[in-house]
Design a protein that fits this description.
The chain has about 130 residues and is mainly beta. The chain contains one helix and twelve strands. It is globular. It starts with a strand and ends in a 5-residue tail after the last strand.
Length: about 130
């Protein structure tokens, strides 16, 4: 799991975050983007993609956890975050991943990938409960 902080800037109007060039380079082209929220106590993910890479951007104001493995029968890596900020997470094909909101406010997640979503490419493997 490759997690990088975003470059934060902003002013009296609010925050602004830029994603690392390292993570942007993973996606030679963005074929899909979706925006989702995760309510307190909820989990999204617990799946991997057979053939597509993702970069997940998490805008947070409280606590959350990110879990990822590096393929079937590998150890699960767990990272915990708190406070306000924004991170980006690079997810390679075959790596199961999940985000759990352990805070009290919604998380916002922007997910980009290098190919379109298909049910055949997405497989369940639990890494976070």
């Amino acid at each position: 799991m490759n997690i990088l902080p975003t470059t934060a800037s902003g002013d009296e109007r609010g925050a602004s975050h830029s994603i690392s060039a390292v993570h942007l380079a993973m996606l030679d082209r963005v074929a899909e983007m979706h925006i989702t929220t995760i309510r307190p106590g909820c989990i999204r993910g617990n799946h991997y993609h057979v053939g597509r890479s993702e970069v997940l951007v998490v805008l947070h104001a409280d606590r959350f956890e990110v879990a990822c493995d590096h393929g079937d029968a590998t150890d699960v890596e767990l990272r915990t975050f708190s406070g306000a900020g924004c991170i980006s997470i690079a997810v390679d094909p075959g790596c199961s991943h999940a985000i759990k909101n352990t805070g009290t406010t919604d998380l916002v997640v922007v997910a980009t990938s290098d190919s379109a979503y298909t049910r055949e490419d997405t497989k369940k493997r639990v890494v976070l409960i």
